[in-house]
Amino acid sequence: MTEGQPTVDTERKPKKGLGRKKKEPAKAVGFFQLFRYATGCEVLLMIIGLLCAALHGIALPLMCVVFGQMTDSFVQSGQQLNLTGTYSERLICIHAYYFVGIGCAVFLLGTFQVMLFLLTATKQTKRIREKYFHAILHQQMSWFDTHQIGVLNVRLTDDINTINEGLGDKICVFVQFFCTFLSGFIIGFIFGWKLTLVILAVSPLLAGSAAVWSKILATLTSKELSAYAKAGAVAEEILVAIRTVVAFNGQKKAVERYERNLEDAKNFGIKKAITTNVSMGFTQFVIFGTYALAFWYGTKLSVDEPENYTIGKTITVFFSVMIGAFSLGQGAPNLEAIAKARGAAYEVYNTIDQPRPIDSSSKEGHKPDCVKGDIEFKNIHFSYPSRKDVKILQGVNLTVPRGKTIALVGASGCGKSTTIQLLQRFYDPDSGEITLDGRDIRTLNVKWLRENMGIVSQEPVLFGTTIAENIRYGREDATDEDIERAVREANAYDFISKLPDKLNTMVGERGAQLSGGQKQRIAIARALVKNPKILLLDEATSALDTQSESVVQAALDKARAGRTTIVIAHRLSTIRTADVIAGFSNGEVVEQGTHRELMAKKGVYYSLVMQQVLYHAHYIPNVIFRDVYHQYQSNIPYQACFYMISNKQKPDEAPDIPFTRILALNKPEWPYMLVGTLSSLVGGAVYPCVAIIFAKIIGVFSEVDPEVKRQKTMMFSLLFLLIGGVAFVTYFLKGYMFGKSGELLTMRLRRQVFHAMMRQEIGWFDDNNNAVGVLTTRLATDASLVKGATGSRLGLATNTVCALTIAIVVAFIHSWQLTLLILACVPFLIGANFIQMRAMAGHASKDQGALEQSGKISTETVENFKTVVGLTREDVFFHKFMDSLERPYQNGLVKAPIYGLTFAVAQAIPYMVNAAIFRFGSWLIAHCHTEYENVFLVFSVIIFAAMNIGESASFAPDFAKAKAAAGRILGLLEKKPEIDIYSEEGEKPTDFVGDIEFRGIHFAYPTRQNVRVLQGLNVSVGPGQTLALVGESGCGKSTSIQLLERFYSPAEGQVLVDGLDTKTLNLSWLRSQLGLVSQEPILFDCSISENIQYGDNSREVSQDEIEEAAKNANIHDFIMGLPEKYNTRVGDKGTQMSGGQKQRIAIARALVRQPKVLLLDEATSALDTESEKIVQHALDAARQGRTCIVIAHRLSTIQNADQIAVIQYGQVTEQGTHTDLMAKGGAYYALVNAQVNH
């Protein structure tokens, strides 16, 4: 251990200063803390790896010594030739064999150092991933309220990858460089201390410039990223809400908003390009200056003290010190990686160590043998940890006797759902206690407690697997019989047996392939399969239409028998039969009793019931329809589910694009490109010139006359300085020109791509290949990839061609035999450099694909955390996650030795090549085919050129990726949608009255062509009239509204507006006449007033109009009650507002544009009775003088419509007023009756 110890310590010290911003001390774990999950065996392997690395580090300086001695023997032979004409070949051969020896050692050491570290890193990373995921799964709910879900998934992938980078070969590579640094300086001092000191005098400049540069670069990069992150967030928010954006003609606003945020990112990018290249140029300048100084002083010494300083010693000292100094610089990025890993580990390890007061994995707590089911809430006070200042429950007292059903009623936001969450122990109350069978639930085992409760919530979450698996999540050991029984009890048997795969049908991500009612019944089956003693129903039937609802309600009544049940409902008719009804108000239970008692009492319950009764002319239950699903898939009959899953299209392959086409993208910046290319051309000549001067200087030493020696070295030294100056200028010009043109291109492309996305029709967004995540990634990465393929690639090519041409021409002139040998070796050298750079660029990308699967599992689990915890299925998901890690883990173990070998090969090749060249060179000299100066010249000219190419190739952005990106971008820019929002064509009638007709409409969604949603729909509505569409979910009601908005075009038939086909009208004009209020309104993350203003994007909406609309939508008073009034932010997707509040803001937004036609898609469904009544009044007022199309499940809200159309299977089956249809006794009558009897 003692040997490994100091090496580890040396790394700690420089660490503190590197790559960390001054602002606040970044939180990081200690260096040794990083390895806290390593086993003893792994620690031992790492120490062996460090030892190998240390020995490997000494190899380079040793090579300098051999090289120096060899140069000496060449020079002596040169002097001998000058004097006597004889030459000894033997001496040089020995040195050539030394090279081979060092090469072999390097190969062995290199393999082991990398392999051992990668093996241990892979093992540790897997352990950390598992521990972290396990920790997340068992956090308490309040932790999730304060941590964003997106961030957690990033941690699981990116942060842990960062830790992996830090644990991997970075450390041993750093140790290797550090040893090179030490041994280089030691050798320098041994062989010539005066010269070493002189060279050292310059090195602070080098080190300083490198440090300053990396610092500036790091800050600029992070600023550039955060600047783009803002734009990315804007893009994501807009793409998620694309239907809303389109309906309100918000494309232009969206593109402008996105563009504003791009400006910053561009400016930072240009600054970054300039800094990078100035500092690189400066470094080059200093290096060449050092060359000049060292050789000038070296010759001076060799003339003054020939016994101490020969050319060989000068070269040994010079190169070992330079290599030493550089290796410190090369080691630094590795420290950066370790620093990043320590930073990333901080949050990850913190979460792992987080104390978990409510831990479902703990074995502690009492597990009674049987549950009777007596529940009591005693004086409960509670507020959510994320919003401490808002008291939700203020002294709730409530008793639920065993086997009884208790219903909680009250306005939304009064604490009903909170009570249920406390009972499940998602949170602990601030004061008071909850008891089950007389025991405080805090003394019971958490997992046991949750296993004894079945919960069905308002928006059921299904997981992306089969129906049977989803139900089995209720109870792991459920047999097929149990599942079938539960399915029958939940009344889902009929629809499941119609599916092609029955219980094995996949439900899609989040159950998206099923309608709301189907999802709800599966969720009920899942709750019933565990045969719980306690049943919690949180608005369980709210998402169903009347027919399924009565069926499910019957199922629930059956399920309640003999169980303690707590029901929450807005719809009071569903709970009249409850044993006890508790009325909530302001976080307290203000009354309880049976339906009869409470009606007699005339309190909260009575007023709620009366509102509903008066409101629904005869007692029609209040169907709350919340169904995210339909936003997506609108209406899917059963066969559709099956089809959608089988029909996963291949992602569109990007077309192959010629390089000229990509360059053409950069056309507007051609002056920048031209200057950049020219400076690259000049830059290419720098290295060959350096090599020639280097060889000339060595040649000077065979001069016998000291005076000639001095003059010549002086001249060559000044030439070195001159070349340094040229290098500085070319670097700066090249960097600035390509940087500027690249950033301008990136910004332009991002804008154009976003503009093109905004233009696509809705059907394009339905396609899985264009999911929001895919599109935002495309915006972020594709444009910046293309940047790399234009300017810098052009520069690289000219640079390389120039360097190679000069080098080869010069070499052939001086010694063609040696040149041929060297050219044969060049591929090896370039290959070695390339492998080396690629290996250092990191191995992370390889495992990305495999890790995506585990990312999917973790995302699904974390996003639906409440459901997972409520079902106590943490372990199931944890094991799924672990299994998904197995493959990348095995790959990692296999790859470690491979990476070790490639690394070692890359390191060892140069030693072997040198041996070959000098062995052959000495033979040529001995046989008088060439002079020794030429051997050096040829060697250095080609080696320098190869170095230059290898180096620049490593900086080269990946061209293949850039090509693919450019292909995708051009494909999108050229894609002209059928329904083009940007086209100015089409009529804009001036006297629009609002006469709408659907004539013979047939339609299927583009992603599911074989499922006909509308099959000959004929229905019309006159100006100023109200048409109501009713029918089961999935019959095509919402689809018809989407066709009127022209989100899609019908397959056949026409949608007519004032007698004109909508296809002939100007699209944005048409949409500006329609005001849409949808079922699940999407709000943007800005203030309330901005959200309302969004209703009319064609002008500036004044504050008075906003307030007027808010008053009409009945939310003005609520807004005025908020601390910031109209400037209150509504949160991401409007999360800070309750459903009813969001809905009213959305109504205000639709009213602001004063539309001629109002489209209400279940607009009041998400409200409780009080708000609903108010909003319904607002809507009735808004309907005056406007054509209105209403979709509702709740038939009472549409009795006064001028026309009611019943849609079944995509056709209108009957039409008329409420009275006509009731008299007819057909489909409508049946729907109404189902609701009334219920």
TrEMBL record:
Localization annotation: Cell membrane
Gene Ontology biological process: cell differentiation; oligopeptide export from mitochondrion
One Gene Ontology term of the molecular function aspect: ATP binding
Presence of keyword Transmembrane helix: yes
Span of the signal peptide: none
Transmembrane region(s): 43-68, 96-119, 171-191, 197-218, 278-297, 309-328, 670-694, 714-733, 794-813, 819-836
Glycoprotein as UniProt keyword: yes
Annotated stretches, region: Disordered: 1-21
Domain ABC transporter: residue ranges: 375-611, 996-1234
Annotated ranges, domain ABC transmembrane type-1: 47-340, 674-961
UniProt keyword terms in alphabetical order: ATP-binding, Cell membrane, Differentiation, Glycoprotein, Membrane, Nucleotide-binding, Repeat, Translocase, Transmembrane, Transmembrane helix, Transport
Enzyme category, top tier: translocase
Coiled-coil segments on the chain, per record: none
InterPro entries: AAA+_ATPase, ABC1_TM_dom, ABC1_TM_sf, ABC_transporter-like_ATP-bd, ABC_transporter-like_CS, P-loop_NTPase, Type_1_exporter
Protein family (similarity comment): Belongs to the ABC transporter superfamily. ABCB family. Multidrug resistance exporter (TC 3.A.1.201) subfamily.
Function noted in UniProt: Energy-dependent efflux transporter responsible for decreased drug accumulation in multidrug-resistant cells. Specifically present in limbal stem cells, where it plays a key role in corneal development and repair.
Protein name: ATP-binding cassette sub-family B member 5
Naturally occurring in which organism (per UniProt): Oncorhynchus mykiss
